[in-house]
Amino acid sequence: MQKSFSLDLLEVGERATIQQLDSSELPSKFYEMGLLPGTVVEIKHKAPFHGPIGIQISNSNLLIAIRKSEALHIFVEK
Prior knowledge:
- This protein is mostly beta strands.
- The chain has helices at 29-32, 68-71; strands at residues 5-6, 15-21, 40-46, 53-57, 62-66, 74-77.
- The chain has one domain: SH3 type barrels.
- 10% of the residues lie in helices and 38% in strands.
- Strands 1-6-2-3-4-5 form a 6-stranded antiparallel beta sheet.
């Protein structure tokens, strides 16, 4: 079984399944947008200098940008 790691460690083009979110650190809008355990996400863009990360939520084709500091609290598994 593979260990989960934070979303910010994925490279552009990689896909992973969300395993857990640290709900105390993330706003409720993340859940409303579909970032839930079991959801498959793909990294579409990573801005330089710790800028935003563009992720696509597979089941809705939604493309969103989140801060790297927020991605640290989303744990995924390949």
